[in-house]
Design a protein that fits this description.
homodimer; alpha/beta; Nucleotidyltransferase, domain 5; 3 domains; five-stranded mixed sheet; 14 strands; 39% helix; DNA-binding
DNA sequence: CCGCTTTGTTCACCGCGCGCACAAAGCGAG
DNA sequence: CTCGCTTTGTGCGCGCGGTGAACAAAGCGG
């Protein structure tokens, strides 16, 4: 063996950043691409041409609008709507979802979800991949990767799901490896033509945060904190400068066990009054004196309760206020530690924010240390299926880092 | 105006990374520099030659030891002990300290500390800078920057000290601007010859963490969490992939108000049982039934109490165990949120770790969620004046990012 | 219609880093 | 001691990505 190079020096170095700018909608024209990349117009032009040649973006010489603009109208850059896609999938307590997602976070095709609960991850993943393959065949799109969102912490770098309890899967299931295996069996290809796709897999809240950061309410944030509930428990995620912060072993932002009520109910973690058990859908139903239904409908039930009973029904109102106060306490703690410049809430937390935004913001402002931190914007998540789009982001990432991957041998 | 370039394309791009490798001791020879940079030997040689020409590193053709090594012995790369220095300073409750620090974190010269407490930051900073200038004149070294460590959160990007209470300074004092002003008045130069130095300033715990990461117990850590006490209160810091994480406005890692004892004593933050008031030196003295002395000696007093009374004195032992349990709870919470791969403790926390490491590690392992997180190494900080060295790191950073700065017009 | 402004493109040039050659410096076997 | 063997250091030609400055193009307004 002669010489091992870590940087294979593949092509233009500005190619990846340029594609990311178009992908996130921050480079609508070659002119702003030039400015954002900090290169000359010549280089930006060459880069755009190369991306166009790869079939990733389109250049439209006829701009629709040019109202009052000075000088020569610029050509419009956009993600190629007919370009390659990735297979994005999400498994959750209610079943799974599969879709094809193009650049720009656009969902190209969706498979009808399946509602079965199956304790065997391999069977589920086979179904997921089969649904994706069916979409690929029907649409005839080229696939350049696959990503999976899982309602569990995923350990890095192994890619094992540590607590997929809502899925009835065994703890420690090697979801990434299993997903990759199913993809290989089904012949799903990755960025490089012909080569099998890697099985990207990560936690669903993390992926939702990533999607919100790139295409949703988190756009432009430097340090984005997301907190969301499913049916049970609370998840968190942090996006730092555009990259997901998963910690050294993928277990960061396990925010469920922050203490938000010293006198609260006991938690399986050994403490009491944890965010997990004090602000999830079950906690709302409990506080409002409602009988909880089956686990896989808790979020629905709590949501409906809020929609119909807030602020009219005093029991619902008091229960919501209680949860908002506790959530605010937990968020204030996180703000003190992470100092994000934006906070996005999902699941029931989003509904709590919608119900009484002033109260939540007031609690956070009061309990976070410095006035300025208290002014951190708290927003509702804005993407329909942000975990799914986030799974697609994961799959797109290698191409976003090096677009030439999709044409290599 | 013609064209604005963001990247001035100054020289070799690998120059900065190479200097950082030598600076942190990760590139003792040209051979490993080649491997670490991922370039060819030719390029690494050219880079080393350029850094040598800048007077930043030395190349020693005669290696001292070559025991049992195969092949041609490699030349040794090292930081130039006679190279430029930065002015590093630290202000604290007991006064201030000033020093000259070269590359590699080596303290070249130290000024005798001054123990005065002065409510006027400008007077203090003038003294600090005067002490530094005296050192520069005495040693005749070239100064390429200045950094200051402050026992207060420093807001970004303003550079104001939000709560310099231990210094009796007014909250919100613009330390960075004041420091820069004093430096300019004294004629202290920055990286570019002739140009005045920027006044780099940051929180002391943050800077201590940075120093530990580059030259101390944190070397090689990907995600390093540091927690330390002064005389009162608790500070935290996080180093992510070699860069300090200060959050979006410099207020990250305000860990003092994590709840570690729901029934604990009230804190000025409005809650009770905060890490701040439950694990600082005053808390130990209180728990052991000792009368606290003056504020500026609390750390000393608590340290001595532990050294002499642990584990012999039952009151001291119980008090220490209590603090260890609470500290462990707080650290477990932080580990759950940040998932670091190493934790370093300073101040009284370091002494608590020394006193009973097993107990502390057991608490963290028990309360952090996943077994693997519980195995995160918890170490004592290892540098004598880590805040001072960290202040120097801050000042060196521009040069580490672009070594050619020190020769530009 | 001609300036003005901004955008896109062409082209010569330049410097960084590669790849390869060869030299240098130790070690060990014969 | 000499001859391989291994690893490290260096000189040289070259490719290529990006610059910079030209020119062309495309609207707008007087």
């Amino acid at each position: 063996m002669t010489h091992h190079r870590t940087r294979p020096d593949r092509g233009r170095s500005a190619l990846g950043p340029a594609l990311q700018l178009v992908h996130t909608g921050r480079a609508p024209t070659r002119a702003v691409l030039t400015a954002e990349l900090g290169v000359t117009r010549a280089t930006a032009g060459a880069v755009a041409a190369e991306l166009q040649g790869l079939g990733l973006i389109t250049v439209d010489a006829r701009p629709a609008v040019a109202a009052g603009a000075q000088g020569r109208p610029s050509h419009r850059l956009a993600v190629d709507p007919g370009g390659p896609v990735v297979l994005a999938a999400q498994v959750h307590a209610d079943g799974f979802r599969a879709a094809l997602v193009g650049l720009g976070g656009t969902v190209v095709a969706t498979a009808p979800g399946c509602g079965d609960v199956d304790p065997d991850p391999v069977r589920v993943l086979r179904q997921v991949v089969a649904a994706g393959v069916e979409l690929l065949e029907r649409t005839g799109r080229r696939c350049v990767g696959a990503g999976l969102a899982v309602p569990s912490a995923v350990a890095e770098p192994e890619g094992t799901a540590l607590n997929p309890l809502h899925l009835a899967w065994p703890p420690g299931a090697p979801v990434r490896a299993l997903f990759a295996e199913c993809l290989a069996d089904a012949g799903v290809t990755g960025p490089a033509p012909g080569a099998p796709a890697l099985g990207h897999a990560a936690n669903d809240v993390n992926l939702g945060a990533l999607a919100e950061h790139r295409h949703g309410a988190g756009r432009g944030a430097q340090h984005l904190l997301c907190v969301a509930t499913g049916h049970r428990g609370v998840g968190g995620a942090l996006v730092l400068r555009g990259r997901l912060h998963t910690g050294s072993s993928g277990l960061a932002l396990e925010v469920g066990h922050l203490t938000v009520d010293p006198q609260g109910r006991p938690c399986h973690c050994g403490s009491r009054g944890c965010l997990d058990v004090e602000t999830d859908p079950l906690a709302l139903l409990d506080a409002a004196g409602r009988e909880p239904g089956p686990e896989s409908s808790l979020l629905h039930q709590a949501r409906e309760l809020l929609r119909t009973g807030f602020p009219g029904d005093p029991a619902v109102r008091d229960a919501a206020h209680l949860l908002i106060d506790r959530l605010g306490l937990g968020l204030a703690g996180l703000v003190n530690i992470l100092n994000p410049d934006r906070v996005i809430l999902g699941g029931l937390h989003r509904e709590l924010l919608r119900a009484d935004p002033e109260r939540l913001r007031a609690v956070i402002a009061e309990r976070s240390l410095w006035g300025r931190s208290g002014e951190v914007p708290v927003l509702a998540c804005s993407l329909e299926h942000n975990s799914l789009v986030g799974a697609a982001e994961l799959a797109w990432q290698p191409v976003l880092d090096d677009p030439l991957l999709i044409q290599e041998v």
